Amino acid sequence: MRQIPMLDLRLEYEYMQADIDVALKTCLEHQKWIFGPEVKKLEDELAGYLGVKHCIGICSGTDSLVLSLRAQAIKLKNQEYFNKTDEVITTSFTFTATGDAILRSGATPVFVDIDPGTYNIDIKKIKDYIKSNQNVVGIIPVHLYGQSCNMDEIMNIAEEHDLFVIEDVAQAFGAGWKDKKLGSIGTTGSFSFFPSKNLGGFGDGGLVATNDDKTMELVRMLLKHGGKDKYNVDHVGYNARLDTLQAAIVLAKFKYIDEFNSKRRQVGDQYNEGLKDIKDIILSECLTDAFHVYHQYTIRILNGKRGELQNHLKEKGVSTMIYYPFPLHKMKVFGDGRSKSFGNLENAEAAAQSVVSLPVEPLQSMEDTSYVIDCIKGYFNG
After folding, report:
1. 54-58 and 206-210 beta bridge pairing
2. In terms of domains, do 74 and 199 share one?
3. Were 142 and a residue from 23, 94, 118, 363 both cysteine, which residue would form a disulfide, CB within 3.0 to 4.6 Å?
4. How far is CA 17 from CA 12, 250, 363, in A?
5. What is the mean pLDDT of the chain?
6. Confidence band (pLDDT; 50, 70, 90) for 163?
């Protein structure tokens, strides 16, 4: 039986094997495993690609969020952490790391609802919350599934209310808003190099992108125990360096990012065309000014049929995933007064009950994508 995985990293390795093998061999030869030359080279190349002054390699996408937030606390409040009264607005429909990073920075996450068409944060809800709350210090928009939030609106809100903006770009490397790459628009951009990401390594890794010199300086201090001199530190820091080995692998794979994002878009377009007329499926909307890179291809299944469809596809050899089965405001970690929710967040809850992501491997053939479409049509045609 045909097997179609969500992602085939072995296939991708074989596609770019020569470049990756050279990168690994080079590291084995120079043996500079901490802050080796590949780290600086990756930072410089990604800064040029994103169009920012600074990129800083971090040990994970999660820590890139934490360090970005900590840097803002130090810069704006002249203290190590935010106060609990300081509020950071974000979406409830995202991976737990987004909200967890806010907690770890000392601030309180404020979860607002999503736009049901794009799954991204609802701009109107941000505006409505800020109208009656004076403690907001920042916004973390999450570019979910590879599509940009409306960054014009978000930056206008931030400028009007003097807020920082940390873009969570973990799922959207190479995506854009109008003529700008995501991660270059806010105060900082936070990236993940987790293996399944559009640009991923062979383990954990991340990146902070910024045009702000002070933020860059603070992040670089925080990632190596809190000081310019590790034996005489200034801040409560972390051991959050990006490994040389991961930097080398990401650097080798970076050569293919635009090609692979283009292939993901082709798969997404094929799904859009093939699934558009099925009445029990809602396709996601793509904003006119957004350049979508389809980290996930996600649809909504109506009338409680998601589980049955997943079982049907599994029997046909087609993998699926649910991102995400629980919105953040429903998780225990954000309870007991650790977070705030604005409104009933009904769209986030509805999405959690109905979304399913389909295989969107960049090297997935048109025939395999057609097979997935046919299997879905077969289920709904009964």
Report:
1. antiparallel
2. yes
3. 94
4. 8, 13, 14
5. 98
6. very high
Residue 258 to residues 46, 182, 254, 293, 373, Cα–Cα distance (Å):
13, 14, 8, 9, 25
Residues 215 and 289 in one domain: no
Is residue 246 included in any domain, yes or no? yes
pLDDT digits (tens, 9 = 90+) for 16-53: 999 999 999 999 999 999 999 999 999 999 999 999 99
Are 139 and 154 in contact by the 8 Å Cβ rule? The answer is yes
pLDDT-derived band of residue 382, with 50, 70 and 90 as boundaries?
confident
Chain centroid to Cα 310, Å, comes to 24
Mark whether 237 and 267 lie in a shared domain.
no
The answer to whether residues 179 and 242 belong to one domain is yes
Question: Is residue 317 exposed (0-12), middle (13-18) or buried (19+ Cβ within 10 Å)?
Answer: middle
* Dihedrals phi, psi of 66, to nearest 5 degrees: -60, -50
Length of the chain measured in residues = 382
* Spatial separation of the C-alpha atoms in residues 86 and 163, rounded to whole Å: 11
Q: Rounded to the nearest 10 degrees, what angle do helices 151-161 and 123-131 cross at?
A: 10
In the chain, the number of structural domains is 2
β-pairing verdict for 54-58 and 290-291: unpaired
Residues 277 and 246 in one domain: no
Q: How far is CA 92 from CA 97, 203, 343, 349, in A?
A: 11, 26, 11, 9
Query: Could you tell me which of 244, 245, 146, 243 has the C-alpha nearest to residue 196?
Result: 146
Residues 86 and 159 in one domain: yes
The structure's pTM equals 0.97
Q: Which domain holds residue 335?
A: 257-381
- SS3 sequence, 57-79? EECCHHHHHHHHHHHHHHHHHCC
CA proximity to 98, closest of 169, 16, 187:
169
Say yes or no: 237 and 281 in one domain: no
Q: What pLDDT does residue 318 have?
A: 98
